[in-house]
């Protein structure tokens, strides 16, 4: 998991598995960032190769934490496997995935 912080934004790039065992890493990375009111938290899920109910719960908890802190949460990119799971579980209606963003750290041109 990589973290990049820019002015008003935090990008978390997840790779490998997001499940019950690795969810704590996501929570730790989130707690180590300075997200809050007026800030954008972006998740890049394109590197995930395994994603189960523990991962779903972790993402929902991250969303809840971000909303409670007044931060905006965005899903930038997803692997095809994650995209299928989002569609099957309705996460695609809870999260508003989109490709890139013009000012996300590590993605200055908004390319997905």
TrEMBL record:
Record Pfam families: STAS_2
Domain STAS: 1-93
PANTHER family in the record: ANTI-SIGMA FACTOR ANTAGONIST TM_1081-RELATED, ANTI-SIGMA FACTOR ANTAGONIST TM_1081-RELATED-RELATED
Organism of derivation: Streptomyces tsukubensis
GO-annotated molecular function: anti-sigma factor antagonist activity
Lineage of the organism: Bacteria, Bacillati, Actinomycetota, Actinomycetes, Kitasatosporales
Protein family membership: Belongs to the anti-sigma-factor antagonist family.
Protein name per its UniProtKB record: Anti-sigma factor antagonist
Signal sequence interval, chain numbering: none
InterPro entries, per the entry: Anti-sigma_ant, MlaB-like_STAS, STAS_dom, STAS_dom_sf
Gene3D superfamilies reported for this sequence: STAS domain
